[in-house]
Amino acid sequence: MTQEDEKKTAELKIAGMSCATCAVNLEKALKGEGRAESATVNLASETAHVDYKPSVTTLADLEAAVRKAGYEVVYDQVTIKVGGMVCATCVETIEAALKALPGVVRATVNLSTEKASVVYNSSLTTLDEMKKAIEDAGYQYLGPADQVATGAEEEARRRDLRDKARRFLVGFGISIPEFILMMSQTFLSPHTLSLLMLTITTPAFVYVSYPIFRGAVSALRNRTLNMDVMYAMGTGVAYGASVASTAGIGLSHDFMLYDTALMLASFLMLGRYLESRAKGRTTDAIKALVGLRPRTATLITGGEEREVPIEDVRVGDLIRVTPGEKIPVDGIVVAGESSVDESMVTGEPVPVFKAPGSTVIGGTINTNGVLTIKAQKVGKETVLARIIALVEEAQASRPPVQRVADGVVAYFIPVILAIASLTFLVWFFALGAPLTFSLTAFVSVLVVACPCALGLATPTAVTVGIGRGAELGVLIRNGEALEVADRVNSVVLDKTGTLTEGKPAVTDIVPLNTARKTLLSLAAAVEKNAKHPLARAIVDAAAAEGATPLDAEEFYLHGGKGVSARVLGEQVVIGNAGFLEENGIHLPPEAGEIISGLGREGKTVVAIATGGTIAGVIGIADPVRETSPEAIEEFKRMGLSVSMVTGDNIRTAQAIAGKLKIENVIAGVLPEEKAREVRKMQESGRAVAFVGDGVNDAPALAQADVGIAIGGGTDVAIESGDIVLIRDDLLHAVAALQISRKVMARIRGNLFWAFAYNVALIPLAAGVFYPLTGYMLQPEIAALAMAASSVTVVSLSLTLKRYIPPVLRDRLPGGKGHGH
Fold this sequence. Notes:
49% of the residues lie in helices and 20% in strands. The chain is an alpha+beta fold. Strand 28 (688-693), helix 24 and strand 29 (706-710) form a beta-alpha-beta unit. Helix 5 packs antiparallel against helix 6 (190-221), helix 14 runs antiparallel to helix 25 and helix 25 packs antiparallel against helix 27. The chain is elongated and about 125 Å long.
């Protein structure tokens, strides 16, 4: 019986079941559509026990059957640190090894971060099996990324860099004097020189090229081809020809390429050193975020303070934070006042004042006062932990544009081997060139060709770009969101809480027949007894202007029309114009004009009367955010069409839109109808970004090509959008699209250079231009050019670390002059 015919058993975790009928329907779906041998669904544990034959159906087919039945399969996910990757083909090899395991659903390897992200079914595959698959493929399994200590990871990287540096320094230290000796010596016979070179070169060549040959042997043992195979062939041919020449086996002493072989191996190690060093810097942003995690907290128990590891803090614990300390967990201030530097999490450069009742974020820095906080979220639930998880997951993702590079890499090495062989055959047999010349061309082609630049072009830009976004308070969920955001041509903005502050505030105070402060004191005296948001706005306005509310008696609420009470013995009536007239209060023409004018501006108008006479008028509105006009202007400058959607009436909507110069207004729309409006735009061929509240606008955020969640600062649902803005600022929505455009432009630039490099240098190495120019690319120079291509691509991606979106340039410290 073959492995394919063996019956396998999988336990699937299922989400979305609500009753016994769901279990019956799911069993039918798995046995029918999923072609399982048998299926038993347990509603209580929300699992499906499935027996199946891999020759008949796969885990992906079973998942498709579950989805078609209206449910979801919940998988485990792990990110593994992998060592020993040197090129884009290594990525393919590791992915293939992991995907071959029975329970692995998806495996994505990032060459830039040296991590493998695996989605798997734990009933079929274990971490030990993944470890074995990675090691059998010839690479190092370093453990789950969240268990590899940052310090240990850094030390391992430094050790690796030191090892590479030692190898290329030894190589150059011996090959350069060898080269000079070969060029200048006249006193040694060819045979003596040859023996001397063999003696000096062999130990150094073995030491310098050992990692290359080890990688090549491992790849061939696993029946795969990677760049190590090509480099081993190139250096091996140069060294092997030299040894054959020394031994007098078919080659004359002219074939002394010892210095070439050693210098070539040294250049390859130098290239890997520079590439590893540059690659290490691409993850600086995530390392900085991880570095924000405090290790200890000062716990208050029974009136005493003691320092405990952060893992021992529980929800509800009281924690003391002194000036200069990091706030250990998310919580609420119960005592003390201070300013807290939240820039490392939110991107807000100005410290935020905190007092009892204020929320604080773990990882931020308490600057000048002592705070006592009550822990509300700890461990993986904190904002910082969720941001780190999202950024790591996003950096491991691939935008669709990478498929171009992946497609090329899959065929790259066999094609290059064919070109190198053809080069040798044409020069030596067809054109009758000397053997040394033909071998040199063969070696140069093998060495100069490099899929590494292609393999690094996208992941390095994605890793640095998403990290930079996180530093600026813009969380981009994955590489696909970056690519789609780059294509957006229409932006739909929710009004309440996005364009506006999201809560009513007093905008106009017009006293008639009384002083301004007196008007506010009278209004606040009555409204402080009401619970309506408009009443709260009036009370807040009185407090802001120092108008103390007077005492009110006989308060009465008149069902949606207004309120009344007795203040200082006088009857005070507050409400709309109709309500005042119902109470026999005459509105003079002046008051009527003011009320009409405020109404035309889309404001809610509250009239206040005392002792039967109008005392004044107050206008209330949800004020436009300070940065909204600039954000709309920036969207338009980027060539985007801007629309506003709101549940408000058309008059209020038009008033706000007029202020912001938004031409397209969709008013009177319920939250669930916003998604339909987005769909209409998409059907007309538009690529739509929707910017709205992460909670109320979830359907529209999901429907849009790119959902940008704003509104709630660090409380915003991090899972709610393709892009999540930590700060309540529409300018950051503009910044998100500018970051996406910049990263995609860098990816396209990287891919161009990677392709152009290979297209230009492979013919040069093959000697295509030799008949015209008399120039032949030497293997050592080819190796240097190969290293330069990868380092160039990584360095170009690293320029994104300093990128500041144009819209934020004047708002961030050092913002000017860093936009490119």
